[in-house]
Amino acid sequence: MKDTWMIKRLASLAPLFQKYQSPISVATRMAQFVIESNGGRSPLYLKSNNGFGIKASFPWKGKVVEHPSLEANGQMIVSQFRAYKSLEEGIEDHANFFTSTNYRKNVAYKSAIDAKDSFEEARSLAGIYASDPLYGEKLIQIIKAYDLTSYNLPANEDHGESDQLNESVIIDRRLEALGGQSDDRSLDAITTIVWHYTGVKRDLNRHITNHESFWQKQRAWDRGGYHFYIDSQARIYQNYDLERITWGVANCNHFCVHLSVEANAKEDYSPQQIKARDWLTRKLMKDLNLPASAVKGHWEVNNNSLCPGYTRSEMNQFRRQLALPIEEDRQQIKAIFELAGRRYQIIQLTE
Predict the structure, then answer these.
(1) Would the pTM count as exceeding 0.85?
(2) pLDDT averaged over the chain?
(3) Looking at residues 144-151, what average pLDDT do you find?
(4) Integer Cα distance of 312 and 329 in angstroms
(5) What share of residues in the chain are helix, strand, coil (percent, to 5)?
(6) Which residues pair with 257 in a beta bridge?
(7) How does residue 177 score in pLDDT terms, banded at 50, 70 and 90?
(8) What is the pLDDT at residue 158?
(9) Do residues 171 and 16 touch, judged by C-beta distance below 8 A?
């Protein structure tokens, strides 16, 4: 029987696996994530963000954690494993792991790298990546059970380009978010959707984990500021359940859901970020049964910041667009509006 939680977990993480190119397919790497860490629920993962059981072997120079390890001879010993700042960093390192040394590339994982499909890859990893002789068959069972080959990308597809992104995918990082989850309020208490920018230039390519580190170390916050975060590549991340109260706007958080974009001015937003924010805002409006008038800029809720960089007139333009109905066939809204000398259209994205 398939794990419903795992189905949602894998669907939300697929864009991250697709983002980082590897000679091993997305399907096989996702299956390894399930086998090695139960989808991010293992003790090793919870203390290290290491979802693939990768030891701190050469050429690793980062942080390590100690954890019990069952060796090929059947003995249980304490080994050192790689520790990552985030799940995404772990996925990126795992994607590169198979070619990280000449031995891995040309000997240990050569059969897997040369494999014609995900099933052949999986069989080639048995006895190499893990000592279990049934490791490959277990991977294949996971691939089939969760239809993971549907996430594989064509060999010539450009991974990581934002114009390839389907913004309707939300990457779920609620298990990793600073402070975790809590039912602090009911959904009925939410009356306002607040737009933010992070205040950091988009081309610096910061990640939500960078902001969490700042909040924790510089402001001593016990949780983050945003329920949702759109990075510089226009990928959408969910950090918190809507019932969780976060620290987005001083003295007003009990009735707000916070959505932030990686940028430091209205001129800094990319068209892809604008589209992703529009789609997410419409989804929240629908899920919470809120009108377009409930969408506010940070400064409109508490005038202690210029965030998100728009004037009231510009926010009113966005609210008018958000109030327009969306056609079912994904056609563009005909109205075009201009902000900061650039012309934008709101585009329908499927849920």
Answers:
(1) no
(2) 88
(3) 93
(4) 32
(5) 40, 15, 45
(6) 193
(7) very high
(8) 42
(9) yes
> Which stretch, 147-151, 166-170, 221-225, has highest mean pLDDT?
221-225
- Residue range(s) in the chain whose domain bears CATH number 1.10.530.10: 4-151
Q: Quick check: 228 and 260 in contact, CB under 8 A?
A: yes
Cis peptide before 308 (omega within 30 of 0): yes
- Closest to 336 measured CA to CA, from 317, 313, 311: 317
- Give backbone dihedrals phi and psi of 43, rounded to 5 degrees, phi first: -55, -40
Q: Which residue has 């949702």 as its token pair? A: 228
Closest Cα to residue 35, out of 172, 153, 134, 150?
Answer: 134
- 12: which strand partners? none
Burial per residue of 83-119, b for 16 or more beta-carbon CB atoms within 10 angstroms, e otherwise: bbbbbbbbbbbbbebbebeeebeeebbbebbebeebb
Q: Is there a contact between 45 and 37 (Cβ–Cβ < 8 Å)?
A: yes
- DSSP assigned state of 136: H
> Would you state the structure tokens that stand for residue 72, as one six-digit string?
């090929």
Look-up of token digits 């629920």: 41
CATH number of the domain located at residue range(s) 4-151 in this protein: 1.10.530.10
Which of these, 91, 36, 44, 33, lies nearest to 207 by C-alpha position?
91
DSSP state of 294: G
The DSSP call for residue 106 is I
Phi, psi for 255 (deg, rounded to 5): -120, 10
Burial 147-161 (b: 16+ CB within 10 A, else e): ebbebbbeeeeeeee
The residue-averaged pLDDT of 31-47 equals 96
Residues 6+ apart with CB under 8 A from 137: 122, 123, 126
> CATH 3.40.80.10 spans which residues of the chain?
168-345
Contact 177, 221 (CB under 8 A): no
What confidence score (pLDDT) does residue 163 get? 36
Average pLDDT over residues 282-287: 95
Residue 224 has pLDDT above 70, yes or no: yes
Q: Which CATH architecture has domain 168-345?
A: 3-Layer(aba) Sandwich (3.40)
Pairing of strands 64-70, 76-82: antiparallel
Looking at 20-105, list the stretches that DSSP marks H as alpha helix, in order from N- to C-terminal side.
26-37, 43-48, 87-97, 102-103
